[in-house]
């Protein structure tokens, strides 16, 4: 039985499409294996099914083959000669860029007050308006910076006040402890000084009177 020529279009029947995919996938994997063995070629094959399932074959490490392919394509792109059309396009782009740079330099000089001798009234008014707009932006930014700095100083002031309060509480309690200990020492010292004097007075009344001894 002679097989008819297969039409290259999507198979509408889902079952027939799945059967065809399985057969041709296996055949493709077999051909890749045969090519790698018969010709000693480095072959890597990646297949994703319609449902996203991965099928792959690699005669060596798949990642090494992919890295080799990326290096090869990168070198090929970098060594590709620039065509005449691309060269003309690059020259055109470079000329436009130089023209824009010259226009920007001229506008910069006019803003600085240079080269305005040939400017018309409209151009001078436009420059003046642009300068006024720039001054407003600068002043607004300056005010914002001042506010930010004031806020930062307030925060620092609060932090220093809190630290000062902590130090005051710490050293205040320390002084109280020192005063209490000194007071106890002075009281003890007074008691020690008073006790010998009482002993002396007591010794004066011990024993017989001098007259009885005679």
Key descriptive features of the protein:
single chain, 214 residues, mainly alpha, SRF-like, two-stranded antiparallel sheet, 5 helices, flat, DNA-binding transcription factor activity, RNA polymerase II-specific, nucleus, TF_MADSbox_sf
Q: How many individual domains?
A: 3
Helix content: over 70%
Give the biggest sheet. Answer: 2 strands, antiparallel
Strand tally: 2
In CATH terms, the superfamily of the largest domain is Transcription factor, MADS-box
Strand order of the largest sheet: 1-2
Strand portion = under 5%
> How do the helices and strands follow one another from N- to C-terminus?
HEEHHHH
Q: Structural class per helix/strand content?
A: mainly alpha
The CATH class of the largest domain, by name, is Alpha Beta
Rg from alpha-carbon coordinates: 51 Å
- Give the overall pLDDT as a whole number: 79
Shape-level CATH architecture of the largest domain: 3-Layer(aba) Sandwich
Distance between the termini: 172 Å
Task: Briefly note the CATH topology name of the largest domain.
Answer: SRF-like
Domain MADS-box: 1-61
Keywords: Coiled coil, DNA-binding, Flowering, Nucleus, Transcription, Transcription regulation
GO cellular component, one term: nucleus
InterPro entries: MADS-box/MEF2_TF, MEF2-like_N, TF_Kbox, TF_MADSbox, TF_MADSbox_sf
